[in-house]
Automatic annotation (TrEMBL), chain A:
SMART domains referenced in this protein's UniProt entry, alphabetically: AAA (SM00382)
A GO term for molecular function: ATP binding
Protein name: ABC transporter ATP-binding protein
PANTHER family for the chain: ABC TRANSPORTER I FAMILY MEMBER 6, CHLOROPLASTIC
Length: 256, 405
C-alpha cells in the first residue's frame, strides 16, 4: 500500500473531528472521498498532509511503508505527498510564477513540462498576478492543480478540485489530472517508483467522470461509514444523497 | 536674503522636532576636513565602493543619466551625462540669486526644527541640485549618494530637485554609512515639480545601528504634475524620523508616497507624510509597509488634507510584527475642509497568518522559507506609473531588503 491511515483520531481546537478513520490508497490507484459538509473530509486530507492545526491524538499515517504521523509537512512533500487546498489563501505580492519557480527548483521539474501544464490549464495570463488575488473560482482551482502537479506528487490529495467550477473547466481540470495520473507527463515515470495515485474529495463526483477511480470512501461525522467500488458508491449517492449512507451506517451500528 | 535665512535658522537651533526622539546636536562634529573632487567613480574610497550596491547605486554608471556622490559634507563626484539635465553641487547653484529666490527654503521652512536649522548653519551648504530642463525627458535615472564616513559627524546636505514644465526626471538616492560609525544625518530635500512634469524619486537608506536620521522634505507640484516617491529604510538605525510635506498646488496634480520600513535591532522609527490637496482635482496616496523585528518601535503616520474641490486621497498603513518585543503604531489621518472631496484610509497590523504559512509549506518548503516568501510578498508593492527600468530597480531593492531578514 502507498498510504495507510490507521485508526486515526484528530482533534482541532479541542473538538474531535476524525474518530477512528481507516483508509488506504494503493500504488497507482485513484480513490474518492465523499461525504456531506462538515463530515471530516478536509480534516483527513489536512492531517495526512501534516497541518499542525490538526492534532493526531491516536492512530497513525503510513506512507510508502514509513510512519509519517510526526513528520513535518516539508518532509512529507519530499516523500511524494501534495495537497491542493479547498480554500486557498490570497497572498498579495507573491505571484503564481514566483511560487511555481520555487517549487520547480525543489522538484527539478523541467520547464518544458511546466509550459505544457500551463497551456493545458490555460493559466498563462495568471502567472504574473498575486496568488489568488481577484481570481475567479475556476481560476483558483486551475492554479491549485498547476501548483500541485508541479510538485510531482506520488500521492495527490485533492480537496474539492471541482467545486465552484463551470462544466467546461471541470473537464479541463479532469483531463489534465487524468493525464498526470496516467503517468504521461515528461519525466515522471522515470523519477517516480510507480504511476501516481490520488485521493480526491468531491461532493458530487463531477470530476470523477474524467478519472479512473477504483474505490470510494464515505465519511460522516468523522467516521468512514461506507467503502466500495467507486462507481457503485457514487451511483448510490447521486440517486439517494448521503441519507442512504447514514441510514445504512446506523442500521449496521444497530446490528452490532 | 541668505543673512535673513541664517538668522531664522539660528533662532530654531534648539527647537525640537514635532515627532521622534530628540537628538543633542552638540554631540556631533560638523567641522570635517573637505575632500577633493575625483575624476571617476573608480577613485572612490573602497568602503564607499563596497556600500554602493547595497543602496542600489552603480559606480560604473551603467544606465544612469548622471551621478552625484557626497562623502560627509563634500561633493566628490558630480556629473550629468545627458543634454538638458543639470547636476551640480548646491554651493554652485546658490551663486545665482534667482535660484535662491525661487527654490532655496521655499518648500521646507528653515526654522521647522533644529535639524533644518543645522542643515542651514552646519551643513556646509552642500547637497545635490538636479534640474531637468523644459520638456526634457531624462529616460535613465540620475543617481545620488550621500555617504557618512567620519565618526560622530553631522551630515546635513541640502538637495534641490527641479523638473521644469513638461519634463520627466527619475532620481535614485542611496544613503549609507561606513560600517559601525555613529552619526547624525539631517538632509533637506526640496522638490519643485512644474506644470505637467513628472518626478519619480527613490531613496534607499542603509545606516549603521548608531545613526540618527532626520530627513526633511518638501514638495511643490504644479498643474498636472506628478510626484512619486518610494522610500525604503532597510535594517538598522538608532533612530529615524521623517515626515515629507507635499503641496499639490496646481489643478490635477498627483502625488504618491510609498514607504517600506524594515526595522531591525533597537531602532526607533517614526515615518509618515502629508499630502495637501490644495487645488481642484488633485489626488494623493500614502502607503506604508512596515516590518518590525527584534525590539524595534515604529510609528507610521500618513495624513491627507482635502482643501479643494474634487480632491481624492487614500492612506494605507500595513504592519507586520515579527517579534514579541517590537511594536507598530499606525496613525492614518484625514482632514477635509471642503465638501466635494473623497478621502479614505485603511490600516492593518498583525503577524503572518498560520494558514498562509502552512499553505506555502505544503508546497514543499520549510517554515523559514515560507515565512520569507510571505514577507517578500508583503514588502513588494505594485506602483502604478513606474517605467520598466524603475520597476526593475524597485524589485531589486525589495529583494535586497528581504534578504536582510
Amino acid at each position: 500500500m502507498l498510504l495507510e491511515v490507521r485508526d486515526l483520531h484528530v482533534v482541532v481546537g479541542g473538538k474531535l473531528v476524525l474518530d477512528g478513520v481507516n483508509l488506504s490508497v494503493d500504488y497507482g490507484e485513484t480513490v474518492l472521498l465523499l461525504g456531506p459538509n462538515g463530515s471530516g473530509k478536509t480534516s483527513l486530507l489536512q492531517a495526512i498532509m501534516g497541518n499542525p492545526k490538526y492534532e493526531v491524538v491516536k492512530g497513525s499515517i503510513i506512507f510508502r511503508g514509513r510512519d509519517v504521523t510526526d513528520l513535518p509537512v516539508e518532509e512529507r512533500v519530499r516523500l511524494g505527498l501534495a495537497l491542493s487546498f479547498q480554500f486557498t489563501p490570497k497572498i498579495r505580492g507573491l505571484t503564481v510564477r514566483e511560487l511555481l519557480e520555487e517549487i520547480c527548483e525543489k522538484r527539478r521539474f523541467s520547464s518544458n513540462d511546466i509550459q505544457l501544464l500551463v497551456s493545458a490549464l490555460n493559466v498563462k495570463h495568471l502567472l504574473d498576478r498575486s496568488l489568488n488575488v481577484g481570481f475567479s473560482g475556476g481560476e483558483m482551482k486551475k492554479v491549485e492543480l498547476l501548483l500541485l502537479l508541479a510538485q510531482k506528487p506520488l500521492l495527490a490529495l485533492l480537496d474539492e478540485p471541482d467545486s465552484g467550477v463551470d462544466v467546461e473547466n471541470i473537464a479541463v481540470l479532469g483531463r489534465v489530472l487524468n493525464y498526470y495520473l496516467n503517468g504521461s507527463y515528461g519525466d515522471f515515470e522515470s523519477s517516480l517508483p510507480s504511476r501516481p495515485s490520488a485521493l480526491i474529495v468531491t461532493h458530487l463526483g463531477y470530476i470523477a467522470r474524467f478519472l479512473n477511480a477504483s474505490r470510494a470512501y464515505v465519511v460522516i461525522d468523522g467516521k468512514i461509514v461506507c467503502h466500495g467500488k467507486a462507481e457503485d458508491v457514487v451511483d448510490v449517492i447521486l440517486k439517494h444523497g448521503f441519507e442512504k449512507c447514514i441510514a445504512c451506517y446506523r442500521g449496521r451500528a444497530l446490528q452490532c | 536674503m541668505l543673512r535673513e535665512i541664517a538668522l531664522k535658522a539660528k533662532a530654531a537651533l534648539s527647537k525640537p522636532a514635532k515627532y521622534g526622539v530628540d537628538v543633542d546636536l552638540t554631540a556631533y562634529n560638523f567641522k570635517i576636513p573637505p575632500r577633493q573632487l575625483i575624476g571617476s567613480l573608480n577613485e572612490l574610497p573602497d568602503d564607499v565602493k563596497r556600500s554602493a550596491p547595497s543602496v542600489g547605486l552603480d559606480i560604473t554608471e551603467a544606465g544612469r543619466s548622471g551621478s552625484y556622490f557626497q562623502i560627509d559634507a563634500s561633493p566628490v563626484y558630480v556629473k550629468s551625462r545627458v543634454q538638458g539635465l543639470t547636476v551640480m553641487p548646491l554651493s554652485e547653484a546658490i551663486n545665482d540669486r534667482s535660484f535662491i529666490d525661487n527654490y532655496y527654503w521655499k518648500a521646507v521652512d528653515v526654522d521647522l526644527d533644529k535639524f533644518t536649522a543645522a542643515a542651514e548653519l552646519y551643513g556646509g551648504k552642500e547637497g545635490y541640485v538636479i534640474i531637468a530642463g523644459r520638456n526634457v525627458v531624462v529616460e535613465n535615472p540620475v543617481q545620488a549618494c550621500l555617504y557618512m564616513s567620519e565618526p560622530r559627524a553631522l551630515q546635513a546636505p541640502h538637495n534641490i530637485i527641479v523638473a521644469e514644465e513638461g519634463s520627466t526626471l527619475y532620481v535614485v538616492t542611496g544613503c549609507a554609512t561606513r560600517p559601525r560609525i555613529a552619526g547624525l544625518h539631517a538632509g533637506v530635500s526640496e522638490f519643485y515639480v512644474k506644470r505637467n512634469a513628472t518626478v519619480v524619486f527613490i531613496m534607499i537608506h542603509n545606516w549603521s545601528r548608531h545613526t540618527h536620521v532626520r530627513p526633511r522634505t518638501g514638495v511643490v507640484v504644479e498643474d498636472g504634475g506628478t510626484f512619486i516617491s518610494y522610500y525604503v529604510n532597510m535594517g538598522f538605525t538608532k533612530s529615524l524620523q521623517t515626515f515629507p510635506n507635499v503641496y499639490l498646488r496646481g489643478a490635477g496634480a498627483k502625488a504618491v508616497l510609498h514607504t517600506v520600513i524594515l526595522g531591525l535591532g533597537s531602532s526607533k522609527i517614526d515615518v509618515g507624510g502629508f499630502i495637501a490637496l490644495e487645488a481642484e482635482g488633485t489626488s494623493g496616496e500614502i502607503s506604508s509597509r512596515v516590518v518590525a523585528k527584534d525590539e524595534v518601535e515604529v510609528v507610521a503616520r500618513g495624513k491627507i488634507g482635502g482643501y479643494a474641490r474634487g480632491g481624492r486621497g487614500h492612506v494605507e498603513c500595513s504592519g507586520l510584527l515579527l517579534s514579541k518585543h517590537s511594536s507598530i503604531r499606525a496613525i492614518p489621518e484625514l482632514e477635509a475642509k471642503v465638501k466635494d472631496v473623497q478621502l479614505t484610509h485603511e490600516a492593518a497590523i498583525g503577524k503572518l497568518a498560520e494558514e498562509e504559512i502552512f499553505y506555502i509549506q505544503a508546497r514543499g518548503f520549510t517554515r523559514e522559507e515560507a515565512v520569507s516568501m510571505l514577507i517578500r510578498g508583503f514588502l513588494k508593492v505594485r506602483m502604478e506609473g513606474l517605467p520598466p527600468i524603475l520597476e526593475k530597480y524597485v524589485n531589486y531593492v525589495t529583494e535586497l531588503t528581504a534578504s536582510k531578514l
